[in-house]
Amino acid sequence: MPIFTKDKFSNLAERKATSRGKNLYTVLNEAKLELKTSSKIKVFLSHSHKDKNLIKEVISFFKGVNVSIYVDWMDDGMPEKTSGETALKKIKSKIITNDKFLLLGTLL
Question: Looking at 10-99, which runs of residues are DSSP E strands?
């Protein structure tokens, strides 16, 4: 499972292949081409609300490779204030209806 630092993630799109072998940049470009020809993958993104600024970069990155990202606070159907039961039912439903579950974790 690859782990990206914030700096690596932010600069990933700007990196160029520097060796004959496949590096991460090359692999991601190949995946991007493959994903554009396949059906759109839907991903539920779990994260700390403290990382809200980084989430915009994450969403942009995944949209660039034809991946749809679900973020709860961007969902107009999600109540602003929820009870534990409401949140559990709605969020659990969203997790189930997406193809993948992605956890974005950052260090303090």
Answer: 41-47, 67-70
Sequence-distant (≥ 6) Cβ neighbours of residue 103 within 8 angstroms:
46, 47
Query: Going residue by residue through the chain (108 aa), what tens digit of pLDDT does each one get?
Result: 455 566 665 565 444 434 345 666 676 677 666 666 556 789 999 988 888 888 888 888 888 877 889 998 888 888 777 777 777 788 889 999 999 999 888 876
Residue 29's φ and ψ, nearest 5 degrees, are -65, -40
Bridge partners for 101 per DSSP? 44
- pTM (whole model) above 0.70: no
| Rounded-to-integer distance, Cα 40 and Cα 42, Å | 6
81, with CB counted inside 10 A (0-12, 13-18, 19+), is: exposed
Helix or strand run (H / E) with residue 1 = none
